[in-house]
Amino acid sequence: MCIRDRLYGDGVFEGIRVYQGRIFKCDSHMERLYRCAEQIKLKIPITRDEMVIVQRQCIEANNITEGYIRLVVTRGYGTLGLDPRKCPVPGIICIADQISLYKPEFYDTGMKVVVAQRPKTPVACLDPRIKTLNYLNNILAKVEAIEAGCDEAIMLSTDGWVTECTGDNIFVIKDGQIFTPPPVNGVSGLLEGVTRKFVMETLCKECGVTCTEKMMRLDEVLAADEVFLTGTAAEIIGVNQIADRKISRGEGPITKKLRMKFRQIVTSGHVPED
Ligand code: PMP
Question: At the topology level of CATH, where does 106-266 sit?
Answer without folding.
Answer: D-amino Acid Aminotransferase; Chain A, domain 2 (3.20.10)
